[in-house]
């Protein structure tokens, strides 16, 4: 009889546990969704956070005041889930801004919790739904793309430029995409100021050949880069058409996919040339690099660089999908901080990288692209976001000179003497007084005859492939 009694007690306890408000259960999906991304720090904080909610639950059970329960479940759901649900649904289901979305979120969940707490007084159904949701997360199949499907979907074709007479060698090739790089010559035509040619002077002194007006067929990074890494698919006019659409954002995932899973890296692989991405996205078939540090595209939505928590890596990691991230970006200096950290990381990675022969390296320097900032050294101002064209150009030039000096410092290192380097913008500056499709290129380790065959940013994939001995 005694055993039966215990058994009943056990089930009774379980049943009580599920009927109650349980912050631990409310928090579970957040922790699962957060740990899906590779983030070293999150694993450290995972168990402590579970313990934290477990203890808070115990305290709240002792206090046992419905109104406090109501406030806390609303607060916790808003804190952890508003941003995730917002980002998951915007553009596909709605185009609300976050403030309006927050309002709807609070009314919706506020009503649900009101019914659960004040009318039913039972969380069982709610808790079971949450647990099933968590369980399903482990079985949701990931969207399965293939490069061929995307090529077909957008009617894309591409062809490698065949240049057998190009100089081929085993020396490493480094591609540095300098995001939003404008042509110094174009700038000089307007400013007539010699100091705006400083970066060009540095490059010439280091034996780079400069193409002062290199065209980019796209003014958006996602199209420009994906085309570069897939041997120029701008022959088909689909890109031109979708690039001018307002909801161009909706195609983002496809083109980011093509940047990661690309034909250049696959072709190099076929000839045992290794590829390393230190850029916006890791190469799917490239060598492993530390993507926690570098993957800006992966971090833009839910970045790990929360300015107001900058001295607390663990908290940055813990709150990265929470509404705190939004508040940091919208009301504090979160936005420039995210990009500044990425700029700094890129410079550090350039300084640290160990170059090997028969290898291709891709770096992405997120400057002189806006936001025009670099920590306290180049202070960010909110008004930079709505400048008229002339003023925007002026600040861009100042920022360009500043950031190119930083890049020159890194490129001055001994180890780059024996490497081939390609520096190019993915496009020029948008919404200014100079042509946004015009950028520049600088090439070290190449000759003029070779370079005359490659005339746009999107041709650089072919140049990189033809740089290696692939027979
Ligand atoms: Zn760009």
SSE layout:
Blueprint: H1 2-19, H2 23-35, H3 40-63, H4 66-89, H5 98-120, H6 124-137, H7 147-153, E1 173-178, H8 184-191, H9 198-205, E2 208-215, H10 221-228, H11 238-243, H12 252-260, H13 263-270, E3 274-278, H14 291-294, H15 296-300, H16 313-318, H17 323-331, H18 334-352, E4 359-365, H19 389-411, E5 420-424, E6 438-444, H20 448-451, H21 460-466
Parallel strand pairs: 1-4, 1-5, 3-4
Antiparallel strand pairs: 2-6, 5-6
Helix pairs in contact: 2-3, 2-4, 2-6, 4-5, 4-17, 9-19, 10-12, 18-19
The structure holds zinc ion.
Zinc ion (ZN) is lined by residues 179-180, 221, 369, 426-427.
Describe this structure in words.
The protein has 471 residues and is an alpha/beta fold. The chain folds into two domains: 9-137, no CATH class; 147-466, Alkaline Phosphatase, subunit A, CATH 3.40.720. It has 21 helices and six strands. A six-stranded mixed β-sheet has the order 2-6-5-1-4-3, sandwiched between helices. Helix 2 (23-35) runs antiparallel to helix 3 (40-63) and helix 10 packs parallel to helix 12. Bound molecules: zinc ion. The site of zinc ion has 6 residues, from loops.
Provide tags for this entry:
471 residues; alpha/beta; Alkaline Phosphatase, subunit A; six-stranded mixed beta sheet; 21 helices; 6 strands; 52% helix; binds zinc ion
């Amino acid at each position: 009889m005694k055993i039966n009694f215990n058994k009943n007690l056990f089930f009774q306890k379980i049943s009580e546990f599920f009927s109650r408000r349980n912050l631990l259960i409310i928090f579970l999906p957040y922790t699962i969704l957060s740990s899906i991304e590779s983030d070293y720090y999150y694993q450290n904080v995972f168990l402590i956070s579970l313990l934290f909610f477990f203890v808070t639950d115990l305290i709240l059970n002792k206090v046992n005041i419905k109104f406090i329960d109501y406030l806390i479940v609303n607060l916790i759901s808003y804190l952890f889930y508003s941003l995730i649900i917002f980002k998951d649904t915007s553009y596909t289901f709605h185009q609300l801004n976050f403030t309006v979305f927050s309002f709807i979120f609070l009314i919706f969940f506020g009503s649900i919790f009101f019914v659960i707490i004040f009318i039913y007084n039972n969380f069982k159904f709610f808790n079971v739904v949450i647990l099933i949701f968590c369980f399903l997360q482990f079985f949701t199949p990931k969207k399965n793309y293939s490069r061929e499907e995307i090529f077909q979907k957008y009617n894309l074709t591409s062809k490698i430029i065949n240049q057998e007479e190009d100089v081929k060698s085993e020396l490493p090739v480094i591609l540095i995409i300098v995001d939003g790089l404008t042509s110094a010559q174009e700038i000089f035509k307007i400013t007539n100021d010699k100091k705006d040619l400083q970066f060009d002077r540095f490059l010439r002194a280091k034996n780079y050949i400069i193409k002062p007006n290199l065209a980019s067929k796209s003014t958006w990074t996602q199209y420009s880069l994906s085309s570069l890494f897939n041997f120029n698919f701008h022959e088909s006019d689909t890109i031109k058409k979708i690039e001018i659409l307002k909801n161009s954002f909706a195609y983002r995932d496809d083109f980011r996919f093509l940047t990661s899973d690309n034909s250049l890296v696959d072709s190099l692989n076929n000839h045992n040339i290794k590829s390393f991405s230190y850029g916006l996205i890791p190469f799917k078939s490239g060598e492993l690099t530390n993507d926690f540090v570098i993957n800006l595209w992966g971090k833009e939505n839910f970045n790990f660089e929360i300015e107001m928590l900058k001295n607390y890596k663990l908290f940055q990691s813990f709150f990265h999908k929470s509404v705190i991230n939004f508040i940091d970006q919208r009301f504090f200096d979160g936005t420039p901080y995210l990009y500044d950290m990425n700029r700094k990381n890129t410079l550090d990675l350039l300084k640290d990288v160990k170059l090997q022969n028969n290898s291709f390296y891709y770096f992405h320097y997120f400057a002189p692209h806006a936001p025009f900032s670099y920590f306290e050294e180049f202070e960010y101002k909110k008004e930079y976001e709505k400048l008229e064209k002339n003023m925007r150009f002026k600040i861009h030039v100042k920022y360009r000179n500043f950031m190119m000096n930083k890049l020159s410092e890194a490129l001055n290192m001994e180890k780059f003497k024996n490497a081939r380097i390609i520096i190019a913008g993915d496009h020029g500056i948008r919404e200014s007084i100079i042509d946004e499709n015009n950028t520049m290129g600088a090439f070290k380790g190449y000759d003029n005859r070779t370079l005359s065959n490659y005339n746009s940013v999107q041709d650089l994939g072919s140049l990189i492939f033809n740089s290696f001995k692939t027979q």
